[in-house]
Amino acid sequence: LTVHIIMPIVGICSKWLLIGRYTEGTHGMWGGMYVRWWLVDVLLDICGRGPFKDFLPLYYWLLGAKIGRGVSIDCSAKIGEFDLLTFGDGAIVGPKATVRGFRVGCSQMVLQRIRVGEQAEVCVGSIVVPGH
Q: pTM of the entire structure?
């Protein structure tokens, strides 16, 4: 039970220690930022969401996302690069949807802001990434 509660907090802290706040920019593949980004992604996956699985907007807010009132995020959605994400009031992210603030192009990792507007819905299986 204790591990169930502590591990997600370890994951959240690891994001803040290794990345701090994600900022927009272009980074070389396999460079320092890419390796830290990958490590945080793996650590968050290993640590899990524990009790936050029932409070996903709070979990993503603790990771740096801007979360409006009444936001609903399905537990199977893939969310990342949290500081670059804004979810307006009443936004919905459906099952198996992906909302991430990064893309790869020309051997570079590009981080850009994503905004899901008020009352907007990212439907089942949809993918929202920069430049698309």
A: 0.91
